[in-house]
Design brief:
CATH superfamily: Ribonuclease Z/Hydroxyacylglutathione hydrolase-like
Number of helices: 9
Helix content: 25-40%
CATH topology: Metallo-beta-lactamase, Chain A
CATH class: Alpha Beta
CATH architecture: 4-Layer Sandwich
Largest sheet: 7 strands, mixed
Strand content: 15-25%
Order of helices and strands: EEEEHEHEHHEEEEEHEHHHH
Number of domains: 1
Strand order of the largest sheet: 1-2-3-4-5-6-7
Radius of gyration: 18 Å
Bound molecules: zinc ion
Distance between the termini: 24 Å
Shape: globular
Number of strands: 12
Length: about 290
């Protein structure tokens, strides 16, 4: 058994998987009068088949709309298992179509990506989009954060936010390698400013404002520690290993400090990270992760 369906408001569900480790992401389900809206898919067909069983336990309405919170593989790779119109931010669609299964299988040889497929989304938006499905559902892009094409799904009446990977709920470690540390901090401020109480993270258990603040503080810590070491002339990888994570050492996937520092350094130096730079930093991060375990 991989996941559990948690009702966070009437007819609004979080599908929570595992402890939020690599590629073990959450999804969301909003059941309307005529159809259901699914937020994100999963990283392989077996996990998704189980999620579909869990969806059927709570509703017989067809999933007609699928929202992808960003283009990372774990959130989009089983889009093909739903006969739904898929919606995401324009950049998330670009990232979906360039995240090749082979690259990830090489980076994560132990993970199961069976049946994973790239299925480009049908509808994209740039800033906001509103869905009326018996309730008001807002999709908003807060700028570059975890990736270049994140969006969150906000239900004002229910005070619920599906954050995608804008939120890794502690003890899950946030990852900004493919986005922006400063942008991520700004996006978390935006999430905190919402009139909301329940924040469904992309990884980790159902959370609240406390977990959003904790993720923001972690990213502020990362940026500041990177800045100090860049000033001292350290190279990024050296800096990443030099940092004393303190309370964050016990967070899951703490090796993400490596990817986060690579990104922080690029931002502090005003440099772009090319795709090959990101892959290189990801390799180093995962090698470091193996040493930690
Ligand atoms: Zn992600």
């Amino acid at each position: 058994m991989f996941g559990k369906m948690v009702e966070v408001a009437p007819n609004v569900y979080a599908y929570i998987q595992g402890k939020g480790e690599w590629f073990v992401n959450n999804a969301g389900l909003i059941v309307g009068e005529r159809y259901a809206i699914l937020i994100d898919t999963l990283s392989n067909e077996q996990r998704t088949a189980e999620m579909i069983d869990k969806i059927r336990e709570v509703t017989d309405k067809p999933v007609r709309i699928l929202v992808n919170t960003h283009g990372h593989p774990d959130h989009v790779w089983t889009n093909h298992m739903f006969n739904a119109i898929a919606i995401c931010h324009e950049n998330a669609r670009k990232e979906t179509t360039t995240a090749f299964v082979e690259i990830y299988q090489t980076l994560f040889p132990d993970l199961d990506f069976s049946g994973a497929k790239i299925t480009p989304q049908d509808v994209t938006f740039e800033r906001t989009l509103k869905i009326y499905a018996g309730r008001e559902i807002y999709l908003k892009h807060p700028g570059v954060a975890h990736t270049t094409g994140d969006c969150y799904v906000y239900l004002p009446e229910e005070k619920v936010v599906f954050c995608g990977d804008l939120l890794f709920a502690k003890p899950c470690t946030p990852l900004a390698l493919g986005g922006s540390i400063r942008g991520y901090i700004k996006a978390l401020d935006e999430l905190l400013s919402l009139d909301a109480e329940i924040y469904v993270p992309g990884h980790g258990e159902v959370a609240g404002k406390e977990e959003v603040s904790a993720a923001k503080e972690y990213l502020e810590f990362v940026y500041e520690e990177a800045r100090k070491r860049l000033e001292r002339g350290m190279v990024w990888y050296e800096a990443a290993l030099d940092i004393d994570l303190g309370e964050y050492r016990d967070w899951r996937e703490s090796e993400r400090i490596v990817g986060n520092i690579a990104r922080a350094y690029a931002e502090l130096k005003g440099e772009e990270m090319q795709f090959s730079d990101i892959v290189e930093a990801a390799k180093r991060m995962l090698e470091y992760g193996k040493k930690l375990r």
